[in-house]
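Let us practice reading a record.
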Amino acid sequence: MPRAVYQFPRGFLWGTATAAHQVEGRNTNNNWYAWEQQEGRIRNGDRSGLACDWWGGRWKEDLDRAVETGQNAHRLSIEWSRIQPTPDHWDEDALDHYREILQGMTDRGLTPMVTLHHFTDPLWLMELGGWENPDVVGLFDRFVARSVDALQAYANLWVTINEPNVYYHAGYVAGGFPPGKHNLQSAVLVAQHMIRAHAAAYHTIHKIQPTARVGFALHYRRFLARRTWSPLDRAVRWMADAFMNRMFLDTLLTGRMNVFGRFTRILEARNTQDFIGLNYYTTSLTAFDLRAAGNAFLRESYPREALLSETGFLANVPEGFFHALNWLRKIGKPIVVTENGVEDPSDRMRPQYLVEHIHQLWRAVNAAWQIKGYFHWSLVDNFEWERGWSQRFGLWGLDPATQKRFRRTSVDLYAAICHENALSWDTVHQYAPQVLSRLFPE
């Protein structure tokens, strides 16, 4: 009796994602390096150090592993502080290094997707006020122009800014990212400048490379009221959704930035995306809590029945992934899943998380929604920002002290999906049998 197969379209992109500071190592001229030197900023006092030693050349073996396991694309970022180490100097050696990586990807049959800003900023920019300074829009545009002009022969898929909503929330409201502020007004100002910078970058890229496909990567976290009968729980859910999920994207759709009923016209931002990048990890329950005044009286938790990752950082809620795709597809632009994954050093939860999310992805693709690719986070364990080395998102494991890679079971699971361009009964039976009857009901 033949077994069922959830087939994906020909040409679908299957890859993994990385970010410069998290994998390159020896990044010493940006805000995150400075942040790591401050006591108490990074869990366990961790430092990025060599990271995955991609700047030292280990990208070659990691991308070889990606190709050998069936991947046909890779998303990476380039480091602004390397390319423009001071305001008046451009480092051609750094650009050559990125040319080499992108050429190496092409030679290996990997389609590159290049992110131009992934959380890190040059130290000189921070000395000028960072993203609170309106001059950042023009400064970022200059960096984009120089970089795209140098690298256009090797890539035509560009992500302008990764997770701007996380950047302005974590850095200017929650305070866990540099510069560590707790000021909503500053966060809104940064968001406005990031919207203007994205719009400027979009137009600049198309002037240099008319055939380019340009978007940004939105971190989407589905929020549900913990007590649906509570108007206060519903109110904080609405606020979280408006600020984190909708504000940036809605501005690109309408040209008006809506901050809880206060509008700012940014008309140049309208229709400045050729695709939408979706980063989805989990779904939260929201509740109003008087003890959480520092977090806008919002307390988050996870659904009681959801499987939690080892540290409790993420919950496996694949239905939220389908909801996110359904929300975005109504905009009418192609969608690329630019990140999806779970921290799981023991690799016990990842197989189930992966197959259940890929199944939800197939549901969306099977409905003829415009979904062009999926990038799993991440190829190899890397430095996870303020959480340091305490979380392991890699298909491949890494010992940062020795730089030794080790193969997790999920490597072979994802390889089966990539090679087959499908999620099959046999694959789920082998790697995540506990969800077989749910994904393939008789």
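A brief commentary: The chain has a mean pLDDT of 97.
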